Amino acid sequence: MRKKWLAVATCAALAASVTAGCGRDDSGGGDTAEAVEEGKATGEITVWAMGTEGEKLSEFAKAFTTENPDAKVTVTAVPWDSAQQKISSAIAAKATPDVSMIGTTMQGEFAKTGALDPTPTDLFRKDSFFPGAWDTTVVDDTSYGIPWYVETRGLFYRTDLAEKAGFPDGPKTWDELTAFAQAMKDKAGAKWGINLQPGKTGSWQTILPFGWSNGAAIEADGKWTFDTPQMTEALTYYQSFFKDKLSPDDLPQGALEPAFAKGEIASFISGPWHVGILNEQGAKGKFAVAPLPAKQSSTSFIGGSNLAVFKDAKNRDAAWKFLAWLSKPDVQVKWYQAVSDLPAVQSAWDDPALASDPNLKVFGTALESAKAPPSFPTWTQLAATFDVEAEKVCVGGADPAAALKAVQSQAESIGTGS
Amino acid sequence: MTRDRIARTSLYLVLVAGLLVVVGPFLWMLLSSFKTEAEIRSVPPTWWPSTWSPANYRDLFDRLDFPQYFANSAIVAVLVTAGNLLFCSLLGYALAKLDFPGRKALFLVVLGMLMVPGMVTFVPQFVLVSNMGLANSYAGLVLPFLAGPFGVFLMRQFLLAIPDDLIEAARVDGAGEWRIFWRVVLPLCKPALATLGILTFLSSWNNFLWPLVVATTDDKYTLPVALALYAIGQNRIYYGLLLAGAVVVVLPVLIVFLALQRHFMRGIATTGLK
Lengths: 418, 274
Description:
Family (chain A): Belongs to the bacterial solute-binding protein 1 family.
Structural class of chain B: mainly alpha
Structural class of chain A: alpha+beta
Number of domains of chain B: 1
Radius of gyration of chain B: 23 Å
Largest sheet of chain B: none
Oligomer: heterodimer
Keywords (chain A): Signal, Transport
Shape of chain A: globular
Pfam family, one (chain A): SBP_bac_1
CATH superfamily of the largest domain in chain A: Periplasmic binding protein-like II
Distance between the termini of chain A: 27 Å
Helix content of chain A: 40-55%
CATH architecture of the largest domain in chain A: 3-Layer(aba) Sandwich
Signal peptide (chain A): 1-20
Strand order of the largest sheet of chain A: 2-1-3-12-6-13
Protein name (chain A): Sugar ABC transporter substrate-binding protein
């Protein structure tokens, strides 16, 4: 609660400084990128990175400094928990590093403050990245940063139970998914056929893909469109798993993995990091990952992190050269081997290290068409509204159409922020 | 006699129930810090670890530069506490016992500052500290917290209860103002000082956002920041590491509290404040 208030206050202060013209020379949008000088990188490059990335990048970057002996990379590890506050305070005080890792969903908010340097087009080729990942860097038609690593969602299911339920390869379509969850319960003896997130923080990451797979878009011509018939149909379908008692709606945090390992929960939707957790929990070899079941398409969510250079960077050119090095296909593969981050550069996936893993292949295919919400600065605010309304639908049995209307009216009053 | 005993027994029952509620979570934290990640997550949760493993603690000390973070936390908390004890009692004394023009107005300003939530001043304060060139320094971590309106208010309320005659007597005996404050007033304030000391130490020790934002390299991080860094990932929380870290972070606070407990209780009772 306290943190939420702080975030609001920080945003308000930032917005005030931008509109008052005392914070920045220009307020982002329509920037043109300057070219980066040729030659090797020199000088100190300061980098902020979150979590494991922050812990491991310093060591990893030694290969870069071997190639560029006059450069030095200084990494500060930042806790994920409050990265947003740290970066926005730094922007307000003009005390930014040269480079920062930025979560894909925070990108719009930060780009809009005008603090990020536009991506130099001479160093980076848009089509070498996954299209959904590249789109998260683009705000008002200008790209501010590059995708670093990606993640996406798939359906994790117990292979042994699926065999008994008559779906050895997992469900392919929406109709099959319902039948699959029912059979997991009736024939395979699972307590719950599937676990879907019943609203609450981040549930949009699971729900929106159902909408996208049904042809819905939450943005059209620069306006929010949450209450389309396609989205309503998707949310109604999502709700049906709770109404039919196929998915629990009150699972405590951390209870999913042990229940999955015991076979009480037969399947769930999540991202690549769950492979490691499930192996630790003793479910190794008992599960597989399937693409999200399709309606019109199978469109998953793309997340991960971008890397951006700040306008106030002291060592801009070297910073961009460092990012160019990080997005080389072979470096992306090595980074995957070091920390299990999935490469954002498409050609890195041809490497046997990734191509030989069947579960990874599912994620790799999903990434080609996966989408992210539009990078409007107001998205994080709206995501919270969406999660609250989704909870009313999943847990409280509220009418999906009315819930989406509520999100839409909130969206219209907040706007896109651009 | 029997009625007395029944009353006593039921009193103890109520107290034990209260104790369980208060101490239970702490005990679970302590016991669970020795469990494996899988056991911590098991449903229903267990009390006693099935196997005692020091792995979480080993992990904690191996991965974190523990002495550095601990030293940072200790330096900041001790300086902030010392500053608060000195400055808040000085101003509190002036507001309670000295007559000077603008005293009322000054007190109102202090009261007003109590009403302003810290989140509102957070960003401007950081911009200020950063423009003074104090980002990423101990000065930046300590200076903004050296005195606070709450401490001033607490000290003033406590000092009001000290009889004026005592101060007058010292003045008649020829003691200077500084000597009166130091030798007569402060020794009488021990309970209030203990209360203020514990509360300030606690809030400084637990402070998370300010050190996170002010420290721009990780060698200036304090314990809570370092703990969040390693235990809370983008998509998952490492409970074992978090619990072991929480135990280690809590220990110094516990020691400070136990050392000052007697004064602390009296301080709360006499000032009617917490």
